[in-house]
Design goal:
The structure is a homodimer of 110-residue chains. Chain A is α+β, with helices and mostly antiparallel strands. Chain A has one domain: Winged helix-like DNA-binding domain superfamily/Winged helix DNA-binding domain (Arc Repressor Mutant, subunit A, Orthogonal Bundle), CATH 1.10.10. Helix content of chain A is 55%, strand content 15%. Chain A has 4 helices and 3 strands. A 3-stranded antiparallel sheet of chain A has the order 1-3-2. In chain A, a hairpin with a 5-residue loop joins strand 2 and strand 3. In chain A, helix 1 packs across helix 4. The longest helix of chain A is centred in the C-terminal third of the chain and has 26 residues. Chains A and B meet through helix 1 and helix 4 of A and helix 1 and helix 4 of B. The structure holds a DNA duplex (30 and 30 nucleotides).
Amino acid sequence: MGRKNADLLQGTLDLIVLRSLAIQPMHGWQIAHHIQQVSEDVFRVNQGSLYPALQRLVRKGWIRAEWKVTENNRRARYYDLTAAGQRRLGKEAANWRLVSGAVDRILSVG
Amino acid sequence: MGRKNADLLQGTLDLIVLRSLAIQPMHGWQIAHHIQQVSEDVFRVNQGSLYPALQRLVRKGWIRAEWKVTENNRRARYYDLTAAGQRRLGKEAANWRLVSGAVDRILSVG
DNA sequence: TTCGTTCCTCTAGATTGTCTAGAGAAGTGG
DNA sequence: CCACTTCTCTAGACAATCTAGAGGAACGAA
């Protein structure tokens, strides 16, 4: 019925995926792992959320996909940021700061 | 097609409404005004978002509604927090800090 | 060889909160 | 009487995430 515990805020997934790929190209599983790790287990990215999101980002031209082989000798689709993705990341990060700052102000007033 | 500018993050509306009502009971229009003001115009709460949200919060027992007359001599529905709403606000605020902290960490890594 | 486990990708359908785009009532001032 | 402001409300569209699956391929152990 209700939502679980620390779900993603809708709209932040794109941001954190783009930001992850700005570090280096990664495949899906790696992205999920990275996000879970850096968020200190706050976010556990759903595969049913991640893969559609990656497709969406490819479709919008913000990331690029390429099949490769991992260190473990497995097929994996590696994604990396395009120039448009870089710009998009900048905008989304700025918007995040704006929005989270606004929420913080509302929380601290009164 | 796309979303506008600084829309709400899905899930934050409940939080900021509850937080607003923790200051004092308010009617819908007043809540919208308060949020827009305190957020420094980052959030412009849609009436089509606000009223369904208020109904949702009433249904969950977190706020209580009561018809009154405003200072301007107009009928308005005043909402205020219930005890359960207080508790819920605490949880949602804590969750917000958790989540926004996690996003911030992801943004600053790398 | 077979079996379980890990790595890794992917999809359909439901859910749900927000947005768009309206409507409308009632008081106020010109 | 008319325009404007205040204030509430709804239907339907939309879009991102979640649930709940499926499945392939490499590896190590038995």
